[in-house]
Write a structure and sequence with these properties.
Keywords: Membrane, Transmembrane, Transmembrane helix. This protein is α+β, with helices and mostly antiparallel strands. The protein contains 15 helices and 14 strands. The longest helix is centred in the first third of the chain and has 24 residues, at 64-87.
Length: 438
Amino acid sequence: MLKIVSDWSFDRITRELSGAMWTFSRLPDDSSAATFVHRCFQREIWHEVKLRERIAIWAALPLVPLVVVVLAAIFTSINGQAIKKRTGKGIIRQVREQLGVSLRHAILPPWYYIFELHDDDKRQRACEYVNRFEMKSGLYRILRDHNGGLPIPAERSTACIKDKLCFMSRCRKFGIATAPALLSVAKGEVKALDWSGPGLPEIDLFVKPLHGQNGKNATRWDYLGSGQYRRNDGKRATADEVLEDLRQASQRRAFLVQPRLVNHREIADLGNGTLATIRVMSCRDEQGEFEVTNAVFRMAQNGTVVVDNFHTGGIAANVDIHTGELGRATCGAWGSTVDGWYEQYYENGAQILHRKLPCWPELIDLVRYAHGSAFSDQVVIGWDVALLDSGPCMIAINKAPDFDMIQRIGSGPVGNERLGKLLAFNLRRTVEAKHRSL
């Protein structure tokens, strides 16, 4: 059952189901930013749907109640008893509330638990949540294709978002601090980048797919001395054996070899030895500048995991963007809420709540500069930034960042907060420019 909730196909199915439901939902008659974002999805995406797809959507609608009931049964079985114990809210009442928010707001049962809508105050604001399917099923693309209603530059940065080497090269071109890249390995061929010596450098290494995401297929090789390395799963190998493994694996996917980066000494006790990163959201504002609106600090929870990905068992804490202070942390894998919220890191008792991150003003400045200089043709970006002893360092970039994490960790919807207002502003200008060109 737990495997179901982490499967990519499940994500795709729920997005399409939610999109179909939301397309025909009635929205409140108000002028809020959240309502405008929802209405923009309803109207703009529906206009782009082909006739045969519209027919398929209409045909599938009678099955929606059955699918929602099945999802409610699955996710209540995973989370229901824990929530009942924590809040006193009974199983039947949880199911009834799940059905209600699904039918009124197209928020399916997994997100009832992810967003903690069993909390009555949060559920009253259900219409303010910006849904995952709205952004990933069309609104990001509309903003990107039309540059938020502004003139489209001749050179786009989108290709450099998908390719890690291109991303690093672009960052360096604009003087943006990023991680070194030692070698790339593709189709059995090893290419030297920032490393000119023979074999591998005698340091801890981090290997990740050149075009991967969510930390999948990433590995860590710790240098043991005497030419020996140990992989995170315990396998030992020489430098030649490591390279040969990479050559073989690169027949399926290309890899990037980097030095293993280490957390800033002030947060070294968070992350279980794995590099912790901060997901930072930035968006173009009304003056054409770029504003940081939200941030969450991600930490790995499992010693065998080499990435801090929130959806593969990691935990995350909200960051006050003005002060860099952390809130409580929680997990977020499809609404598995059994473990609740943490004020301390589970393994060593290190304080999380009210902890202040080092180099926070420098991190904000770096993100704003990077967005405005190297990626100014992107309206919204989700940045992954590490804090090293040398300062903030860009790790990765996401052109379609997940809103689930920032809304769960932030304990509330962003639809009528600053990010939602900026989304509405940019979507309104995009729609106006799009219609003028027709």
